[in-house]
Amino acid sequence: MKKYSIFDCHVICFPRHKNRAGNITVVENKQELPFDVQRIYYLYDIPGGEDRGAHAHILLQSVIIAASGSFDVTVNDGYNSKTVQLNRPYYGLHIQPGMWRNLNNFSSGAICLVLASEKYNADDYIRDYDEFKQIIKAV
Ligand code: TYD
User: Fold this and answer.
1) How many angstroms separate the first and last alpha carbons of the chain?
2) Residue 55, ligand 1, Cβ within 6 A
3) Which residue, judged by its Cα, is nearest atom 6 of ligand 1?
């Protein structure tokens, strides 16, 4: 696993086209994104007060977008953490590999859209925080 810090996880502001009623944001591989998208998934119907995430990935990078509503994303590189509120559909938080992430404070009806650099692979997950800390220390 390559070592990244929370300072490598940036909010990307995607372009907005305001040409008619409403807006369009377009996101293309090799244009607005730092990786090629292999998979898209989205979280919705998240009950108030619930958290998601609570894991890290070994290889996978992602960009997390509040397609609707808002929520907070906390990234933790094993040494430092930061919390970013996503509240507009034209912002995406780029999460590098090796980041423990937590998502919470979902507004009612929020939709969390995730653009992922890899296909689903259960072996790429680190789901235990103590194990995560050990792996980070060893890198
Ligand atoms: P998980 O990634 O743990 O969700 P979160 O981190 O948002 O809480 O995924 C929840 C479940 O969905 C888990 O059992 C695996 C399954 N899943 C897939 O089968 N394919 C996928 O692409 C994803 C993201 C999850």
Assistant:
1) 7
2) yes
3) 53
Which pLDDT tens digit goes with each residue over 74-89? 999 999 999 999 999 9
Nearest to 129 by CA among 81, 89, 90: 81
- pLDDT over threshold 90, residue 126: yes
User: What is the average per-residue pLDDT within 20-39?
Assistant: 95
Ligand 1 contact via 104 beta carbon (within 6 Å) = no
Q: With a threshold of 0.90, does the pTM exceed it?
A: yes
CA-nearest residue, atom 20 of ligand 1: 120
Q: DSSP letters along 38-106, please? A: -EEEEE-SPPTT--EEEEEESS--EEEEEEES-EEEEEE-SS-EEEEEE-STTEEEEE-TT-EEEEE-P
